[in-house]
Design goal:
TIM Barrel; single chain; two-stranded antiparallel sheet; 8-stranded parallel β-barrel; alpha/beta; globular
């Protein structure tokens, strides 16, 4: 692997973002109707390889259910407003109306309200009653505190999601979460991340995780690169973690860990490129924040935006382009990749001659 000399004392390797690469058409094409974009992780099958990010601007209990009915997987943030307030509707409207730099301070005040275990139970029971797969997210710092409540409420899939999650977190202040022990003791599949390197991903796979989230610092509402200096271009990150998946498959004698791209996926072409680089599925936020049903009302923010000590995100205005169904399946009224995401993925696969997602991971790409 070629490294570039940054200066006499430091070298670094070249990495690529989704914007730096393109998918190459092949000699064989197919009809988009013959393409399957179905995805299965553990015992759960989904008609779409799309997870909705656990962000208050994107997912409420109602939109989690809607996402499930459309064939994807909605993930509810159990540290968000829906587990802090009985009815956060007015607060969501207030957040959408905030102006300028004052937005960050007000977000910190709103999210200072304690998380209520009984609301975790109520929200998950609401989703379960709809008949869709129940998926919910906690940060590594909150997982031990609320894990039993979540499992007792009947969650089907547990997501442990942070800016960067390590299998070897070291702390002298408190007992860190032992991911391997924790995942082993759970009876539900766990998806964990983010990570962005081969070695970090391999360590997470060895904990027993069913899936690994790839990416940090690259989301549309993140300022992690500005605040912490952390970022890895996503095309290279996904390809590196896909290599870890391949090697772990051999190491574990056949255990397949799913790679889920989580970051820098703003338009339909990014979904296709993520899978072309080796992802099994994608986790998206900003594309779904543009839905008329989205709780953020055209605004988008994540948990990094209200961190009490060091915010690493901001509230971003995207506006709305159509319903959740239109964003996923069209018809599209724009030519910028923000609508009919699934239709675009099907057409990309059909244009290159592939009918299954795992086959499409082998498609040729070029650096532009």
């Amino acid at each position: 692997m070629t490294e570039i000399e940054i200066g006499r004392a430091k070298r670094g390797r070249r990495a690529y973002a989704f914007d730096d690469i393109a998918i190459v058409p092949s000699r064989r094409t197919r009809d988009p109707e013959e393409v399957s974009v179905a995805w299965q992780i553990d015992a759960y099958r989904f008609e779409l390889p799309i997870m909705a990010a656990p962000m208050d601007s994107v997912m409420s209990p109602e939109t989690v259910v809607a996402m499930g009915h459309h064939g994807g997987l909605g993930v509810l943030d159990l540290e968000g407003l829906w587990t802090r307030y009985d009815d956060p509707t007015d607060l969501l409207a207030e957040v959408a109306a905030l102006q300028g730099p004052a937005a960050t301070g007000r977000l910190q005040e709103i999210y200072a309200e304690p998380i209520k275990p009984e609301l975790i139970t109520a929200r998950l029971e609401q989703v379960r009653a709809s008949g869709v797969t129940v998926a919910a997210s906690l940060s590594p710092q909150r997982t031990k505190e609320f894990a039993k409540v979540v499992v007792d409420a009947g969650v089907d899939m547990f997501v442990i999601r942070g800016t960067t999650v390590s299998a070897e977190h070291v702390s002298s202040q408190s007992e860190p979460l032992n991911l391997k022990e924790f995942i082993y003791e759970l009876d539900v599949p766990v998806i964990v991340g983010g990570c962005a390197t081969y070695q970090a991903a391999l360590h997470l796979m060895r904990t027993g995780a069913a899936g690994v989230l790839v990416g940090f610092g690259g989301g549309a509402a993140h300022t992690t690169r500005t605040v912490l200096g952390l970022a890895v271009p996503m095309a290279s990150a996904v390809a590196d973690v896909a290599a870890a998946r391949r090697d772990y498959l051999d190491e574990s004698q056949g255990r397949y860990v799913h790679v889920i791209a989580d970051g820098s996926i703003g338009r339909s072409g990014d979904v296709a490129k993520a899978i072309a680089c080796g992802a099994d599925a994608v986790m998206v936020g900003s594309p779904l924040a543009r839905a008329t049903e989205a709780p953020g009302r055209g605004f988008h923010w994540g948990s990094e935006a209200w961190h009490p000590e060091l915010p690493r995100g901001q509230r971003v205005e995207f506006g709305t382009v159509g319903s959740l169904e239109e964003i996923l399946f069209g018809p599209s009224r724009v030519a910028d990749g923000t609508m009919n995401i699934v239709g675009a993925l099907r057409r990309s696969m059909a244009t290159t001659g592939y009918t299954e997602l795992k086959e499409f991971q082998r498609v040729e790409v070029v650096v532009q």
